[in-house]
Amino acid sequence: MSTDYVVMSEPAFTLKVGIESSALSQLHKSYGVDSSVFITAWNPGSVPRSKIENEKRQVELMEILRFRSLDYFHAEGIHPSGQWPAEPSVLVLGLSLEAGKKLGRQFSQNAILWAGPDAKPTLVMINAL
């Protein structure tokens, strides 16, 4: 089972690694972009943190996105097994792969989900700092 990447747009939709998403493709077209990054600031390095620490980190991520005037949608990464708690996330529109990896490193994440012009999400492992 792989993680469900749920995007809280209107209507909401779920991304799956390696499966082209017509909803994501339409979102890209609507915003005039050809890529997006699904990212969270929660649980850096896949090490569980307190809810307070995770929420603080997520607020910092959102502030960076607003400062950079990037369009984004609230989202959530959910593992179907339920053995790992759902993680509040964001789908950031218009970020290149390199910019997404840099943001992931900034928040000490092991991976991001990136989709290019084909709207087929790819799990991209990064070296967290």
How would you sum up this structure, described in words?
This protein is of the alpha+beta class and 129 residues long. The protein contains three helices and seven strands, in the order E-E-H-E-H-E-E-H-E-E. The chain has helices at 22-31, 51-67, 97-106, and strands at residues 4-7, 13-15, 36-39, 72-78, 87-93, 111-115, 122-125. A seven-stranded antiparallel sheet has the order 2-1-4-5-3-6-7, sandwiched between helices.
Secondary-structure topology with pairs:
Layout lengths: L3 E4 L5 E3 L6 H10 L4 E4 L11 H17 L4 E7 L8 E7 L3 H10 L4 E5 L6 E4 L4
Antiparallel strand pairs: 1-2, 1-4, 3-5, 3-6, 4-5, 6-7
Task: Name the descriptors.
29% helix, seven-stranded antiparallel sheet, alpha+beta, 26% strand, 129 residues
The helix/strand class is alpha+beta
The largest β sheet comes out as: 7 strands, antiparallel
Number of strands: 7
Q: What would the principal axes of the Cα set say about the shape? A: globular
Which percent range fits the helix content? 25-40%
Order of helices and strands: EEHEHEEHEE
Q: Which range does the strand content fall in?
A: 25-35%
Mean pLDDT: 94
The total count of helices amounts to 3
Output the radius of gyration: 13 Å
Low-confidence stretches: none
N- to C-terminal distance: 28 Å
Give the strand order, joined by hyphens, for the main sheet. 2-1-4-5-3-6-7
Short description:
The chain is α+β, with helices and mostly antiparallel strands and 129 residues long. 29% of the residues lie in helices and 26% in strands.
